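Following up on my earlier message about WTA. Here are the inputs again, as you asked, copied directly from the submission form:
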Amino acid sequence: MSEENAGVSEAEIAVHWGEESYFHPPLTFVAQANLTDPSIRERFSLDNFPEYFKEFADLLTWDKYWEKTLDTSDAPFYRWFVGGKLNASYNCIDRHLPQYSNKTAIHFVPEPENERIEHVTYRELWVRVNEFAALLRDFAGVKRGDRVTIHMPMTPELPITMLACARLGAIHSVVFAGFSGKACAERIVDSESDVLVTMDSYYRNGALLDHKEKADIAFLEAEAMGHTLQKVLVWQRYAGRYSSPTPMVDGRDFIVQDLLPQYRGQRVAPESMNAEDPLFLMYTSGSTGRPKGAQHGTGGYLSYAAWTSKMIQDIHPEDVYWCMADIGWITGHSYIVYGPLALAASSVIYEGTPTYPDAGRPWRVAEELGVNIFHTSPTSIRALRKAGGGDPDKYDFHFKHMTTVGEPIEPDVWKWYYENVGKGHAAIVDTWWQTETGGFLCTTVPALDPMKPGSAGPALPGIHPVIFDEEGKEIPAGSNKAGNICIQHPWPGIFQTIWKDPERFVRTYFAKYNKNPKSTDWRDWPYMAGDGAMQAPDGYYRILGRIDDVINVAGHRLGTKELESAAMTVPEVAEAAVVAAKDQIKGIMPEIYVSLRPGVEPSEELRKRVSEAIAKEIGPIARPRGVYIVPDLPKTRSGKIMRRILAAISNNSGDVGDVTTLSNPETVDIIRTMHS
Ligand code: WTA
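Thanks, got it. Here's what our run produced:
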C-alpha cells in the first residue's frame, strides 16, 4: 500500500458495514439451475488442481483437443490447454447453427424509444461476421496476429467487429467509446494497430453524439507519437446515411457499409488458433500513468468465460440475458459477448443510458424482450434508485437471476435491488473480479450458497484465495482484519501478460509475495489482485477496494496519475492531486486539488478548464466532482504529496491524521476551509 494513499476512502465504505444476514435463493430457481452439485467445491479442491479445469475446456469445441492442462515451465507466464486448437468466433457462432440457426443471438435496443429493437439471429450474425471478416482481410489487410483497435459504441456492429477479428486470428483491442480520441491514440500506439474501426455517431442521453471526430483526433495524436494508422473503417449508425458533422478523409477513412456489398456472400474459414494465442487486449489503468494492455488468450479465456456464464450467470440457451455494462470494458467482453454467445444465449445490447428517458426504461426493455437474467453495477442501481426506481413492479418481467459487479455494493442498495428489481424472487450474485482475471473470482454459486448483502461470497469453485498481510503472513477468516487478497494458483481466465511489458506484469501482480523468482512451481506465485479484503467467519469475502493509486469510478478504473497529468495540460496548473471522494450515486468520484504557477490568479474559468481538460484527455466519466484551487498542496518533507489528507478533507472526515511530519502543515486548515 503506497503510504500517501493509505486512507483511500473506498475501503471505509465497507469497513463500517456490520454483519448481514443470509438470503436464500427461491426453490424455483434452484430447481432449474445449471450448477446444483453440492460436492463441487470438494471436487474442485486444491488437491485436484489443475485437472478440474478440464470441465471448463469441455464446454468448447476444439479443432484439436489439448494434451496438457497447464504448463508452468515459464511461471508466472502460464500456458493453458497446451496443444489445443480452436477458434473463438467458431465457438460463439458456427457451432450453434445446426440447432439454433434462427434463434436470436443479439437483441439490439437503440436508445431512442421510437426505434424498433433489432434481433440478430445466429445465422445472420454468422453471415455478417463472415462478410466483415472478408472485408478486414481483403480490404484492410488484417491477418492472424495483427492488432485492430476498435473504438465503437454499444451496437451489434461492435461484437460483429470483434468476432470478425477473432475469426481471422487478429487480436482486437476495444477502447470504451466514452474515452477520448487521445486515450484511443495511446492504445493504438501501444498495440501498434494499423487499422482503427469506429462508428460515425451514437445516441447517449437523448443526443446523437459525433463519434467520428474522435477518430480524427486519435489519428493525429497517434501520428504525433510516431505511429500512422493505415486505414480508418467507419461504420454508420444508420446504414446508408452518414450522421457525423466531421468530414471523411479521402484515402484514409472508409464507410464500412459502402464497402460491404463487395463482400456479400463471402465466407471466411475460421483460423485455427493455438489455445494460448492471444484473443484480445483490454487496456486498464494502473498506478502509473500508462495504461496496461492486459493480454487474454484464446482457449483459457473462452473456457473460463463460458463456464462462469453457465454456472454463475446460470445461462441456458433459452434465456434472454441482459448485461447493462459496456462492451468497452472487460465485463462486456466476458459477459455480453464471449460467455453468453459461447452458450448460444440471446444477449441484449442497449445503446444508451439506463435512466433515459426515465428510470422505467430498463423495465420496459425487460418486459418487451422477456429478459430473465439481468446484470449491472452498483452505480447503475444507485442511479436508478435515485431516479425513483421507475416502478419495476408496474412492468411484467421476472428476473430469475441478477448480478452486481464492479465495486462494493452497500447492503442497503443491495436490498433495494433484491426487493424492487428482483421483486424478491431473483437469485443475486455479487461477482468480484478484474480486467486481468478474465472472469469471476469470488461469488456465490447461486443455487448452492446463500446470499449475503455486501459480500462477494466465497470463492468461485476451483478458485482458492488467500489474504496476506504486508509481510506475506496469512490473515485467517474471522480475524476482522483486512489484507491483500491473492489467488494461490493460476486459472484459465488469468491474463497472459501485459502487452509488451512482461516485466511490469511480474512486478505488479506477483513480485510482492513471490519468494523465488526462478521457481516454476505455481505455489510460489500467488496472484496479487491489488484489492483489500477481509474474510468473515463463514468464509465469505468482503472486498474493500483498491489499495493502489487507482480510483474506481462507477465501476471504471481510473489512474489518479492519468487524471493528474490531464489537469497539468492546463498551463497555469503547477501541481495536481486527485483523490477518491465518496458519492451517493457513483460510489466514488474523483476530486482534484491544484495549485497554480506563481502570479496566476484563481478563477472559475480556470477551474472549468481543469475539469474540461480531464474530460477531454480521458473522457467524461473521469470529470471530477470538484476542482479546488489551493495555495499549496500538503507535502511531506521529502516532497511527496499527501493524498491521504486531501482524501480525508474530500470525505468530510474530521480526522486528517498526523500532520506534524508535513513541510507545510498550515495548508491543511486553509484547504479544509476552502473545501467546506
Ligand atoms: C473492483 C471489473 C467489490 C475491485 C470486473 C477490482 C469490485 C476492480 C467488485 C476491477 C465487487 C470489481 N465488489 N469490488 N463485486 N467487482 N470490483 O478491472 O476493486 O474494471 O479490483 O474489472 O473493481 O475493475 P475492472
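One observation from looking it over: The first helix runs from residue 9 to 15. Hope that helps, and feel free to reply on this thread.
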